Amino acid sequence: MQTREAFRSAQRRLAATVAVITAGQGEDAVGITATAVTSVSMDPPSLLVCVNRAASLHAVVAATGRFRVTYLRADQPEVARSFSGGRPQAERFGSAGWRLDGDGGPALDEALAACVCELEEAVDFGTHTIFVGRVAQAETGDGRPLLYCDGVFGELAA
Fold this sequence. Notes:
- By secondary structure, the protein is an alpha+beta fold.
- The protein has helices at residues 3-12, 56-64, 77-82, 89-92; strands at 16-17, 19-23, 30-34, 37-42, 45-52, 66-71, 98-99, 107-108, 113-125, 128-140, 147-149, 152-154.
- The chain has one domain: Pnp Oxidase, Chain A, CATH 2.30.110.10.
- 18% of the residues lie in helices and 43% in strands.
- Strand 11 (147-149) and strand 12 (152-154) form a beta hairpin.
- The chain is globular.
- The model has no long low-confidence stretch (mean pLDDT 94).
């Protein structure tokens, strides 16, 4: 197996919390499903997200300097599927209770958690840009996280 395929196979076996990264407002709202999200620092509070430069989200984050990371609950796999590609952006936001005028990007009602970030740094690497955002706002909700591992959505065992 070539290194690229072996790497992809290895990464698919790592369980990760599912997030939707959004930016823009109204008709300009865009979003993607992602697991390439991680905290960077508590001082200042910051997150990094990795976005393919071919994704429509990329241009909007670069232009507006803001994005929202919404962590999904275990009962929201359809939301994740809606944002994982193949659908026009406007249809993606029809999957659940999205408010398209959210500060920093569309906001999902009843999310597990969400963070609005102001872009601090952008680093191109390979096909993606690593966007580092300073957290300007954080919210938490109830529920268990939606996880993704080896092509399957799931949740933590009780």
